[in-house]
Amino acid sequence: MLNLLGDPTVTLKLPGKNNTAPNPPSKPWGSANPIFKKWWTYHTEVYDPDNDQVKLQWEWDGNEGKHWWGPYNSNETVTIIYRWSTEGNHTVRVRAMDEFNATGNWSDYFNVSVSFDCNIEHDSSPVVLGDEVQFTGMASGGSEPYTSWYYDFGDGNYSQQQNPSHTYGTLGTYNVTLNVTDSQNISSNFSKVIDVVLPNTDFESSPGIAVSDQQETFNFNDKSKGYYNIVNWSWDLGDGNTSFQRNSSHVYTSEGAYNVSLTVTDNNSNNDTCYQIIYIDSVSPTISSISNNFEVVGYGSNVTISVNTSDNSCGIKTVKVNITYPDNSYINCSMNNTIGSIYEYVFSDCWQFGEYSYDVWVADQADNNKSDSTGSFVVSRTFGYSKIGDSNQTIWDTITGSVFRVNEKGVADNISVYLDPGNASSDYHYSCVIINHNNSELVGISEEKNISGVKGWQTFNFSVPKPVLLNDTDYVIGCWSDNHTVRMYYDNGTGDEKKLNLDGSRQKTSHVASFKKWKHF
């Protein structure tokens, strides 16, 4: 699959005779005390004396990353995220390479001390004065066995047990901390705030917080606790009705959202209140749109399925997608809420050729549901992005490299681009190239063709030996001409641009290129 996006405004620049390598980037900065196996952010600043764009290579504990990240502008602050796989002391440094492959020196080291992760769970919050609280200590990562568990309960009391219990004798707010040490004498810390109160109001509703039938009876059951005896219960059922029983039942006569509250009072006149929204809703959720990121997908690639769904009353509870394979087998998966009303699922099992179909099922909190089955995509060996782009750019004296990834090893017979020759005559020549993104090695050059007068897809064949493309490898496509009237159509995006310099050839990356007649090894 080709995902070809780039910036058509980048222009060809040839290196001068006295090209200067980039300066060492600034010493990285960021999370000096990160937690094991979580994502953390690191930054550096880059500068090139010739104001060239640069790429960065990061080194983690003396291991150089294989990938050069970028390009970035000179004087730009660059951010990267990293996840440490082991705890202990580590180092980070970075170096830069300009667009003409001149590599600068490494930055100074940034020292990092990585700890593993620990956590505290307890059985109630807030805590009623005088009640025994059970704490559970947890840890992950590090070097087991964990040799020390140390609690500070925030009230002057301590424990060296992993799962201690404790009773608070005074009202207030307490910061409970846990320190865990592993067999390598590396420590991890976690803190949690505990509120200690007199009464703690709580209740549960049955059959839940939402129903679709307005004639259904809600049963509200008190679960409050108090240091002193609770003697009064006051219910506000949200529709103008009240109750003073400990447990209450109610039938709502119309649909809507109702804010139910319970206030309890003990025999020392201490009180507390809690709230819960109850929904009566018979309207199904709405599905505004369903889409996937590609109609034609490369073998073994990922497909992101997205749905825009909402419920104006009680809210969305579950969104699922059922995906049917070309062999008619299927799977059912939960979709994740990414932002607002958007839910997504990343499908990573495209190992059958043919058409996949999918339908989305949505349920709200009242179990009203709706489904839609209009989605499909095709997994094919026709690698590429074959949609004609909305933008176009002359391929004379401009160059933009856009990265695509090959998902299976194979040989490219030909490549197609969408060109508008304008008023070009048959005297002008055109050709395409494929370049390895990581090392700028030229992988293949297509035949030269004469194009005149016809706007549309143009296919360029590769001669023997045809370019061999490796799986899980990034490549760049270029198209060049000696005629400034020829324009190529592309989708204007924000992909990974790459400047190339091949003997001064005028090249332009195709944003709408595709491989045809793919030969599989």
Describe the structure.
The chain is an all-beta fold and 521 residues long. It is 0% helix and 50% strand. It contains no helices and 47 strands. Strands 3, 4, 5, 7 and 8 form a five-stranded antiparallel sheet that branches. Strands 10-16-15-12-13 form a five-stranded mixed sheet, with no helix packed on it. A five-stranded mixed sheet has the order 19-26-25-22-23, with no helix packed on it. A hairpin with a 5-residue loop joins β40 (430-436) and β41 (442-445). The chain is flat and about 100 Å long. The protein starts with 28 loop residues before the first strand and ends with a strand. Mean pLDDT is 81; it is low at 1-16 and 492-521.
**General shape:** flat
Mean pLDDT: 81
- How far from one another are the termini? 17 Å
Question: Helix count?
Answer: 0
What class, by secondary structure content? Answer: mainly beta
Radius of gyration (CA) equals 32 Å
DSSP strand content = over 45%
Secondary-structure topology with pairs:
Layout (H helix, E strand, L loop, with lengths): L28 E2 L8 E7 L8 E7 L2 E2 L4 E4 L4 E7 L4 E11 L11 E5 L2 E6 L4 E2 L3 E9 L7 E5 L5 E2 L5 E3 L4 E10 L5 E11 L1 E2 L2 E4 L3 E2 L5 E6 L2 E2 L3 E7 L5 E2 L4 E4 L4 E11 L4 E10 L5 E7 L3 E3 L4 E8 L5 E9 L5 E5 L1 E4 L2 E6 L6 E11 L4 E12 L10 E4 L8 E4 L3 E2 L2 E7 L9 E7 L5 E4 L10 E6 L6 E2 L3 E9 L5 E4 L23 E3 L2 E2 L1
